[in-house]
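Hi all, posting the design record for the shared folder.

TITLE: backbone redesign
STEP: 1 of 1
STRUCTURE INPUT:
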């Protein structure tokens, strides 16, 4: 006896029946193929837009048009000769401002924001109050610890003189 597989006399293998690829079958396959691609693209675009709205600062276009004013303000601030020392103590951020001669600057209205690196809805507004030694203190929530933040502060005198800082800080746990 021979161990060869025998094929029927018509030459067709009975295990694999002939399937015709008609125009309708190919059309359905193309529609399914591109449907999967479009669905994946729509899902990725939706996730991308929801996770990053695209604009971190409000009215960024207008700020770009007024960039010369920003440069002038920075030059004016540099001419003041003020410096800032920022430290994190317990559950508060301390901002100590000194003038060119090293004297503490008192009587400022200080505002601040802790900006999250990726999500603007996680930004935290800080409320600074002047301590007895002239340092401006802002309490922070324990939930903010263990993360990197961008600290933006603005100190303003009664005459309108403004001093802004921008610092990356790590709030240790």
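Okay, here is what came back for every position:
SEQUENCE:
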């Amino acid at each position: 006896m021979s161990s060869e597989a025998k094929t029927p006399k018509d030459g067709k293998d009975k295990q694999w029946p002939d399937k015709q690829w008609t125009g309708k079958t190919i059309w359905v396959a193309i529609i399914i193929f591109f449907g999967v691609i479009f669905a994946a693209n729509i899902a990725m675009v939706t996730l991308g837009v929801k996770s990053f709205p695209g604009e971190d600062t409000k009215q960024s276009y207008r700020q770009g048009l007024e960039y010369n004013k920003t440069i002038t303000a920075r030059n004016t601030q540099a001419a003041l000769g003020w410096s800032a020392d920022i430290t994190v103590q317990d559950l508060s951020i301390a901002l100590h401002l000194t003038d060119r001669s090293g004297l503490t600057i008192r009587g400022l209205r200080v505002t601040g924001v802790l900006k999250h690196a990726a999500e603007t809805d996680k930004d935290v507004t800080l409320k600074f109050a002047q301590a007895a030694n002239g340092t401006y203190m802002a309490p922070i929530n324990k939930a903010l610890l263990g993360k990197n933040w961008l600290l933006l502060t603005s100190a303003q005198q009664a005459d309108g003189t403004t001093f802004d800082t921008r610092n990356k800080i790590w709030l240790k746990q």
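COMMENT: The helical segments are 23-51, 60-65, 67-80.
Let me know if anyone wants the other runs.
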